[in-house]
Write a structure and sequence with these properties.
Blueprint lengths: L1 E5 L5 H10 L3 E5 L3 H9 L3 E2 L3 H5 L4 E4 L4 H9 L4 H4 L5 E4 L5 H13 L3 E4 L2 E2 L1 H7 L2 E6 L2 H14 E8 L3 H29 L4 H8 L7 H11 L9 H17 L5 H15 L10 H9 L8
Parallel strand pairs: 1-2, 1-4, 2-3, 4-5, 5-6, 8-9
Antiparallel strand pairs: 7-8
Helix pairs in contact: 1-7, 4-6, 9-11, 9-12, 9-14, 12-13
This protein binds nicotinamide-adenine-dinucleotide (NAD).
Length: 296
C-alpha cells in the first residue's frame, strides 16, 4: 500500500520501519529533520510537511505525543487533511483523549476522508519487534482495509467500537496499569518496612490472585532500583489526565485514577517525569521514608 507516516519518535520510527519491511511504499514527515533523514536512509521517501506526506497516500498514519499535536498535524496549516484525498484513510495511533479523536474524526468525515483511532500498548520493544497490541475505533470496512498495516506493526488488532473507542480502551488499559503499580508500591513498602525481603514477598504472591503482567514487569525494576524508561511518568500523567477529562464529560467519578494522577504530577514536579512509570513506587516510599530494597 501507499502509506504516509507522520511522527517518527520512540514508537513511530520502529513502526514505520516495520511497514517498510512488510513491503509497503512509505513517505514520512516529522518536525525533527534528523528523524526524517534516518527514515529516508531506511528506504522511505522524505516529505517536507504532513500535507506533502499525505498527498497520494491510501493511508496516513500519525504517531504523536498528545491530542493538541494530532490536531495541529492533521487539521492545522500544511497538515495531513490538506494533502489527503477524499476516500483515503487517516489512522491516528497516538494515545489521546477520545474527545480529541472524535473531533479529528468529524473534520475528516467533512472532507470525505475516513478516520480510525488506533492507539497501541507494548512500548518500544514491541514497536521494534512488531508485536504491539492495537485497539481500534472506527468503521469495520475501514478497519479491514487497514488490517494488513496493523498486522505489520502488531500481534493483535481489535475493533472495540466507533471512532474514539480505541482511545477509551487505551485509557482503560492505562488506568489498570497505573493503579496496579501504585498498589504494588504500597504493598512492597509495607512488607519492606516490616523487615521482609521484597523479592521473597514478590515470589510468594506472584502465582496467586495478586499476580499480574504489571507485577512481573515492575516489581523486579523497583527491587533493583532500575527506573530507566520504558514508559515515562510524564506520558502516563498525560494519559490519566485524558482519562479524567473523558470521565468528567460522562459524569463518571474515578477516585483511584485521580489519586494516582496526583502522584504522577508530584513526581514530575520532583524531577522524576522522565523516569519509568515503575517509579510511582517512589512517591509511596517518600511518604513512608522506606525504600523497596533487599535487606543488607
Ligand atoms: P515521542 O515524543 O518519542 O515521539 C513523538 C514524535 O512526534 C516526535 O518525533 C516529534 O518530533 C513528532 N511531532 C510532534 N509534533 C509533530 C507535528 N506537528 N508534526 C510532525 N511530527 C511531530 O513519543 P512516543 O514515545 O513515540 O509516543 C507517541 C505516542 O504513543 C504517545 O501518545 C504515547 O503516549 C504513545 N505510546 C507510547 C509508548 C512508549 O512506551 N513510548 C507506548 C504506548 C503508547
Amino acid at each position: 500500500m501507499k502509506v504516509a507516516f507522520v511522527g517518527l519518535g520512540i514508537m513511530g520510527k520502529p513502526m514505520a520501519k516495520n511497514l517498510l519491511k512488510a513491503g509497503h511504499e512509505l513517505k514520512v514527515f516529522d518536525i525533527v529533520a534528523a528523524s526524517v533523514a534516518e527514515a529516508a536512509g531506511a528506504g522511505a521517501a522524505a516529505a517536507s510537511s504532513a500535507a506533502e506526506a499525505a498527498a497520494g497516500a491510501e493511508v496516513t498514519i500519525t504517531m504523536l505525543p498528545d491530542g493538541p499535536d494530532v490536531e495541529a498535524a492533521v487539521l492545522g496549516p500544511a497538515g495531513v487533511l490538506e494533502g489527503a484525498a477524499p476516500g483515503s484513510i487517516i489512522v491516528d495511533m497516538s494515545s489521546i483523549s477520545p474527545l480529541s479523536a472524535q473531533k479529528v474524526g468529524r473534520a475528516c468525515q467533512a472532507k470525505g476522508v475516513h478516520f480510525l483511532d488506533a492507539p497501541v500498548s507494548g512500548g518500544e520493544p514491541k514497536a521494534i519487534d512488531g508485536s504491539l497490541a492495537i485497539m481500534v475505533g472506527g468503521e469495520k470496512e475501514v478497519f479491514d482495509k487497514v488490517s494488513p498495516l496493523f498486522q505489520a506493526m502488531g500481534s493483535s488488532h481489535i475493533l472495540t467500537g466507533p471512532v474514539g473507542a480505541g482511545n477509551v480502551t487505551k485509557l482503560a488499559n492505562q488506568i489498570m496499569v497505573a493503579c496496579n503499580i501504585a498498589a504494588m508500591g504500597e504493598a512492597l513498602v509495607l512488607a519492606t518496612k516490616a523487615g521482609l525481603d521484597p523479592e521473597v514477598v514478590f515470589n510468594a504472591v506472584k502465582g496467586g490472585l495478586a499476580g499480574s503482567t504489571v507485577l512481573n514487569a515492575k516489581a523486579p525494576m523497583a527491587i533493583a532500583r532500575n527506573f530507566k524508561p520504558g514508559f515515562r511518568i510524564r506520558l502516563h500523567q498525560k494519559d490519566l489526565r485524558n482519562a479524567l477529562l473523558a470521565a468528567e464529560s460522562m459524569k463518571v467519578s474515578l477516585p483511584l485514577t485521580s489519586t494516582v494522577q496526583q502522584m504522577l504530577m508530584s513526581l514530575m514536579n520532583n524531577g522524576r517525569g522522565d523516569l519509568d512509570h515503575s517509579a510511582i513506587v517512589t512517591f509511596i516510599e517518600d511518604m513512608a521514608q522506606a525504600e523497596i530494597r533487599k535487606p543488607a
